[in-house]
Amino acid sequence: MSTLQEQATAEMMEAVEAWFVERLKRTDLDSAVNRTTLQVGIFNDLLLDYKPGRTTADDYHLADAGDFTQRTPSRLDEAVVRNSIAPQLVAMVQAKLATLADTPLIDYRFSFRGKFQTAQGTLHLNLLDHVNEGKRSALLARIHTYVEQKLERGNRPTKKLETFFLARHLLDPQLFPQPDIAWTIAQFERIEQLNKSRPQALAEHRSDIIQAVSAWAEKQFLPQFYDVQTSSYSGTEYTLKAGAAPDAQALAPIDLLLYGAVMILRHEPSYAKSTGLKFLEIARELGSERAVRMLKEGSGTFPDGDIHVKNALLECRANDVFATISITIAQEEEGAYAQALAFITHLLNNGFPKSYQIKLKSKVKEYLPLKGLARSDTHRFFANALAHASLQPQLEAYARAAIGQYEFYADTEGEKNCMPGSYATFGLGLLDARHFPLVQHYMANVDEEHQSVQDQFTAAFAERHGVTHESIPVLAACLRACTDNAKVKIQAELEEVEKLELFCQQLQGLEGYLVEHMLYPIWGKLEKLAALARKAQGRRKELLQALLEAASKTGA
Q1: Which of 297, 300, 378, 527 could lock onto 358 through a cystine, CB 3.0 to 4.6 A?
Q2: Concatenated DSSP letters for 286-323?
Q3: Are 150 and 111 in contact, with CB atoms under 8 Å apart?
Q4: 254-266 as b/e: b if 16+ CB within 10 A
Q5: Cβ neighbours for 413, distance < 8 A, ≥ 6 positions apart
Q6: Torsion angle, CA of 437/438/440/444, rounded to 10 degrees?
Q7: What secondary structure letter does DSSP report for 157?
Q8: Strands (E), 341-491
């Protein structure tokens, strides 16, 4: 054996040994596993990355960069790694697993993979796939017990951690080589049903289910038929393999792909919707008739009466797959818009995607008196509805159903991007103080990193309502949600000490960076405010200095 081979083997074994030693230092192994019966171990994967002088096992670094510069740049021959070093590494890991078989450190399955820099280039080896049959059988028994007791016979909300593990277990081919797709989907739907009384928790359960189904689709199901290329820039690309002609048995799990697509489209933020649509398109390409119907008519989740209404006043048709609501106004009157609002609000309250768009056929073309908004059909519909004063309560009910953080109307993008409920909220907020709480609710949910239309509304709101006891809390909420490009002309009003006092009260207790952010649309940089404070007198001077001090705070 050459010196290089001996050094390399020792280096790799030392890295593997260090990986096990580091994890054995954990003092919470038993408690970590005992948080749920659906876990029999913690670690199930070890990746050895060999580079001369800086070999790592997982994220454990053997040597620092300085040490590496002193090592030889020589490379092992690929055959030496395959035929000599790899068997020694496998034997070492197998011995470790044998000693740890009954501990909660190692999961029921364990994979050991290697990445080696050799003279012929990078070599990837799947060194070991180990299954502890005893732990596997025990875990399966626990899974079935959990499903029977907590889901099938249970009537109480379940724990998020349980769903996290269960969703992955049910789609694990080592545990369920031939899964019953209908039964699996039924368990996911039962989890939703049991947790529907807790909206925030329900969203977390759904997120875990969606992640598990998406991982199953991308790593197990679709690679059977598609070449998969992932990119951080253009997303995942699927290319149908030449000659791919899947039979009925191979396509049996396609209902799970469609289930995942609908879950993504109905419950994930707008930026994830493309994945759901891609799953549907792939299912259609693979020959699923159900996918064809879903793309044309919707997912089938909603009753026909919920997605299609037609009478003498209007026709409404919704498709939750494409998140579109088509509205044809036959009679331009209050009743038509009242029915359309009721149609949309009912859908949103029952799970229709919030990141939707309206396709409108109407003779009326109203728009809100705000610059920077998309002149879209969605905008036009709500501007038309706002012309009917009696519809204001309905418009507010709609807005509260539509507002959702990280959701955006599907027909807006870039600078015109806006959260569902924007047009109704903006229109109502400018019309009447009764809707000020709605504006505050809206601003609390704004994602200012991805939309800026609130800047224009805030300027218009200040011009329309000024600085009063009623308006100032709303104005403060708007300023918090504005971007750094907002310009709000209330300096003249804040010359009055009473109004400046009201404004200062809204900034009490806020962190310095947030105070500075809220002052910027009014005065610009703090230097300008400081100059005004130096020239001011009496109580006005005190208040301006208080604003400067609040903006300079480093803590909460």
Answers
A1: 378
A2: TT-HHHHHHHHH--S-S-HHHHEEE-SSEEEEEETTTT
A3: no
A4: bbbbbbbbbbbbb
A5: none
A6: 140
A7: P
A8: 357-361
For residues 16 and 81, the answer to whether their CB atoms sit within 8 Å is: no
- pTM exceeds 0.85 for this model: no
Helix (H) / strand (E) containing 38: none
Asked if residue 493 lies in contact with residue 465, where contact means CB atoms within 8 angstroms, the answer is no
- Give the full edge-to-edge strand order of the sheet including 121-131: 60-61, 56-57, 43-50, 106-118, 121-131
Q: How far is CA 520 from CA 92, 289, 515, 523, in A?
A: 63, 56, 9, 5
Q: In this structure, what are the phi and psi dihedrals at residue 117, rounded to the nearest 5 degrees?
A: -85, 115
Tell me the pLDDT tens digit for each residue of 442-480.
999 999 998 999 999 999 999 999 999 999 999 999 999
How far apart, in whole angstroms, are the C-alpha atoms of residue 225 and residue 343? 40
**487-546 pLDDT, tens per residue?**
999 999 999 999 999 999 999 989 999 999 999 999 999 999 999 999 999 999 999 999
- Interstrand relation of 357-361 and 324-329 (parallel, antiparallel or unpaired): parallel
The mean pLDDT value of the chain amounts to 91
d(CA 16, CA 48): 7
